[in-house]
Amino acid sequence: MKEQTITLKNKQNVDYPKECTFSKEDWEVLSKYWFPVAESREVTDKPMPIKLLDVNLVVYRTKHKVVVFRDLCVHRGTPLSMGWVEGDDIVCPYHGFRYGTDGKCTSIPAHPDAKISPRLCMSVFPVIERFGLVWTSLLGKEDNLPHFEAWEDDNFQQIVCPPFDIKGSAGRQMEGFLDVAHFAWVHTESFGDRNNAFVPRYQVDHTDYGLHVEYLSTVSNYPKGQQSRAPEDFKWLRVFDVYPPFGATLKVHFPNDGELWIMNAVCPISARETRLFVPIARNFDKDSPIEDVYAFNLQVFTEDSEMVENQKPEELPLDLQMEAHIMADRTSVAYRKLLKKMGLGAIYTS
Ligand code: FES
Ligand SMILES: [Fe+2]
């Protein structure tokens, strides 16, 4: 049989998705940044469908690396997440095409002798595995991963809370993480206190990566029932670092030099769906059950999500005239200005 060449005009770059929930302008800005898409421990040789900025992707692990492709076989559009991994290849379940980790098709079982065009290739996205998470980027142009020194520190225990899904926008969620006036109201069951609603003045500094905020108050970070562990006059320092568009860390200083680090790592699945990943590190209570950490954080996330899922408009208004601001909102006002400076629209859709 004569050798035949199987070719295809395949675009490597991902285009603005059909029925995208983001405006084209916002989507183009956001697609340059890195976002967490899965916990490292859930990425195995079983291909898993994920979604980022309305683009369907598949993530899986071979013996050598973690791979992220578009979840769409270039032959007939079958999701590769329905397939399986064999060695370093992923196999499409429809006609058995195989693709290597570089995206190139390595086998077409219907024509075993045909030469395969290098253009028969999946769109491959870059991957970073860090803080117990798999991060990817549609365009991979910016360096926006948060710094989280405690993750590498042996004096700290590292924990990744199970991902938490929110029917709301990433911008609203992020702003909630940075908000210090809601503790007394939203978190009354977990750690806040209605009688301690006052927000002392604090400062917001601009940095090369985003924002740095130090907030000193009497709001305890111990769960209800444990709050007597802190001396009565203890002042709680919370240090926020913001890595726009949707990354932030919070370091809470506990009594006796205790430190709790919390990362807010957000995947904007769509403009109305957000998956929250939360790597945590602590240098105290390291022997207490991890399930207690999961349970406490789940309670806090649930309290927060009740607000975020009901705010209107769903998107974060970057036009500062659209909502009222108080002194306690200094961080969120600075955050909104940053997003605007990044090129996101005034009627921002996430
Ligand atoms: S659709 Fe994937 S091999 Fe045909
Ligand atoms: Fe909160």
From TrEMBL:
Gene3D superfamilies: Naphthalene 1,2-dioxygenase Alpha Subunit, Chain A, domain 1, Rieske [2Fe-2S] iron-sulphur domain. It holds the Pfam family Rieske. PROSITE patterns: RIESKE, RING_HYDROXYL_ALPHA. Residues 34-136 form the Rieske domain. One of its GO terms (molecular function) is iron ion binding. It comes from the Bacteria. InterPro entries: ARHD_Rieske_2Fe_2S, Cholesterol_7-desaturase, Rieske_2Fe-2S, Rieske_2Fe-2S_sf, VanA_C_cat. Keywords: 2Fe-2S, Iron, Iron-sulfur, Metal-binding, Oxidoreductase. This is Rieske 2Fe-2S domain-containing protein.
